Amino acid sequence: MYDMETKMLLKHYLEQGVSKAELARRFQLSRRTIHYWVESGQLDRELNAGAGGYARRAPIAHKLDPFKGIIEARLEVYPKLTAQRLYEEVRAAGYPGSYGSVRDYVRQVRPRETADPVVRFETPPGRQGQVDFGCFRLPWGQRHALLVVLGYSRLLWLRFFPRQTMKVLCRGLEGAFERFGGVPEELLFDQMRSVVVSDDRLAGGGLALNAEFLRFAAHWGFRPRSCRPYRARTKSVVS
């Protein structure tokens, strides 16, 4: 049985960012024991119950927290992506933690299959890419993540930018083209303001795209398309 002082020191070092492996060595505990105390909430419950004059501390921030939005967004579009694939993607985005944390979180948030699953439109190689911006609050401030995904291979390109502008979009797409080694025949956008000027298709009207972006698309030789409003679950379906 470990005394309260040991657990208080353990919690203090965890909050300072000391790894579980190092703490296991210092306190002669197994990493599994420390992991169980933290993930089950037992460490907090025991300290709060026996704290007396000690104030409740704020919840511990986890290394994965700033990257959970990326995992959720990817699973929304591709619910069968493996935890290993998602781990590699968040690592590329700057995640410094372990695979196990990603695997456990994926198990929590992976969408459950419904009785009437959404049928997604599949594209041949080189035909289509999907482009979207996501907003994330990171420890160093708010950032906009530009995501470009190839429809056939599901290969992802991602980069963070301080703003969401036409210049950022064009520069980011050029970076993605360089990384992919080519340009898809068409790019699908989810009502992105830098691309879509107006969309009245639901009311029987038409779709107007930004003229500057159309010139950029013509230069690179791809066709920009936009999915209909309010149809996020059928993102690969366009009119």
Kindly describe this structure.
The chain has 239 residues and is of the alpha/beta class. It has a domain at 4-49. It is 39% helix and 18% strand. It contains nine helices and seven strands, in the order H-H-H-H-H-H-H-E-E-E-H-E-E-E-H-E. The strands form two sheets. A five-stranded mixed β-sheet has the order 3-2-1-4-7, with helices on both faces. Strand 1 (128-138) and strand 2 (141-150) form a beta hairpin. Helix 1 crosses helix 4. The longest helix has 15 residues, at 166-180.
Record the SSE blueprint:
Elements: H1 4-15, H2 20-27, H3 31-40, H4 42-49, H5 68-77, H6 83-92, H7 99-109, E1 128-138, E2 141-150, E3 156-161, H8 166-180, E4 186-189, E5 196-199, E6 207-209, H9 211-220, E7 223-226
Parallel strand pairs: 1-4, 4-7
Antiparallel strand pairs: 1-2, 2-3, 5-6
Oligomer: single chain
Question: How helical, in percent, are the residues?
Answer: 25-40%
Please state how the strands of the largest beta sheet are arranged side by side: 3-2-1-4-7
Give the SSE order as H and E letters.
HHHHHHHEEEHEEEHE
Number of strands: 7
Structural class: alpha/beta
Poorly predicted parts: 51-56, 230-239
Q: Please, how many helices? A: 9
Average pLDDT, all residues: 77
Spatial extent as radius of gyration: 23 Å
In percent terms, what proportion of residues is strand? 15-25%
Distance between the termini: 65 Å
Largest sheet: 5 strands, mixed
Global geometry: elongated
